[in-house]
Design goal:
This is Peptide/nickel transport system permease protein/nickel transport system permease protein. Keywords: Cell membrane, Membrane, Transmembrane, Transmembrane helix, Transport. This protein is mainly alpha-helical. The chain has 15 helices and no strands. It has 2 domains: about 70 residues, no CATH class; about 220 residues, Orthogonal Bundle (MetI-like fold). The protein is about 80% helix and about 0% strand. The longest helix has about 40 residues.
């Protein structure tokens, strides 16, 4: 377990290092001069060459690129992504004032997406190839393929403005988070629904479910007590990685609803070529993705012993289910199924 954990942590750190190198290269190739941008932010609209040279020295832009990368990486590890080219303030200070609104939006969106996926996926798996399953599959497919900004425009123009089913002003509070969070949640909910449905159907076709039916377990018990818990591992993996997807989708949704979060702020930075802000958001999104992936691996190892002792369990299962003649007997299957239940 410790060896596997060490490997996962090493892979996570290597991923962050590679991502930081890519982001640094993009920062070097970005158009515009950081010194000029910061001087403009400080009110010096027409700086002379001496002022630009002094600012470049202050920012350390004249040094060796490798040394500058190491300095930038050390500062980034400590939460310092430099100064905004537009305001001249530290980037993390700009993010700190907007982070609560984004966290509020992402939290509500994640809760909505999980609730919708669990309900819809369970309903679809409970009646496969029947009309509830068909309805859920069509709805979930529509939720996946329709872009979030189109849903947001529909909500604003039809549901809010014409039908008066909400408020237009998005001030970052709990009172106005409903529609933006729902719009952000739909895409993830549709994808997670299809994953959960497939996982439950696979679990229902496993050999141990035959033992459950033979013992007289009700269909509800078969589904909720035996099938769903065994199908939760792939679902948790997708949900964990979906946390980064929700953060990645936040800029567009926040811009549509004028939500005062770091997503909308990043879109404004892209339009203004405010590179440090874009770099900081990119690194934060990558970090969230990597950390979420690592935490999900640990959670799955905690709730599923097969992942902690995978090699031993696989060898034992193979020995228990295969006879000397190379075929599997009914008694062996029954013992293996009862152990799984």
């Amino acid at each position: 377990m410790l060896v596997a954990l060490s490997k996962r942590v090493g892979i996570a750190l290597a991923t962050l290092l590679v991502a930081s190198i890519i982001v640094w290269c993009l920062l070097l190739l970005a158009p515009g001069d950081p010194a000029t941008g910061i001087l403009h932010a400080r009110g010096i609209l027409e700086p002379d060459p001496a002022q630009i040279a002094a600012m470049r020295v202050e920012l350390g832009l004249n040094g060796n690129p490798v040394v500058r990368y190491l300095d930038w990486l050390w500062a980034a590890v400590h939460g310092d992504f430099g100064l905004s080219w537009k305001s001249g303030r530290p980037v993390m200070e700009e993010f700190a004032t907007r982070l609560p609104a984004t966290l509020r939006l992402a939290t509500v969106a994640m809760c909505m997406a999980i609730a919708m996926a669990v309900v819809m996926g369970t309903i679809a798996a409970a009646a496969p190839r029947r009309w509830p399953d068909s309805v859920v599959r069509v709805v979930s497919l529509a939720m996946v393929i329709v872009p979030g900004f189109l849903v947001g425009l529909f909500v604003l123009n039809i549901l809010v403005l014409k039908l008066d089913l909400g408020v237009i002003i998005s001030d970052g509070s709990w009172r106005t988070v409903g529609w933006p969070a729902l719009t952000l949640a739909l895409g993830s909910a549709g994808y997670w629904t299809r994953v959960l449905r497939a996982s439950i159907l696979e679990a229902r076709s496993a050999p141990y479910m035959e033992v459950c039916r033979a013992r007289g377990a009700s269909p509800v018990r078969q589904l909720l007590v035996h099938a769903v818990p065994n199908a939760i591992a792939p679902f948790l993996t997708i949900v964990g990685l979906g946390a980064a997807a929700v953060l990645g989708g936040a800029p567009i949704i926040e811009s549509v609803y004028t939500w005062p979060g770091i997503g909308a702020f990043t879109v404004q930075a892209i339009n203004a070529r405010n590179v440090p802000v874009v770099v900081a958001f990119t690194m934060i999104a990558v970090t969230v993705y990597v950390v979420a992936s690592l935490l999900i691996d640990l959670l799955l190892a905690m709730i599923d012993p097969r992942l902690r002792h995978g090699n031993f369990r696989r060898r034992r299962t193979t020995t228990a289910t295969v006879t000397d003649s190379g075929t599997t007997t009914a008694a062996d299957i029954n013992r293996s199924a009862e152990a799984s239940v």
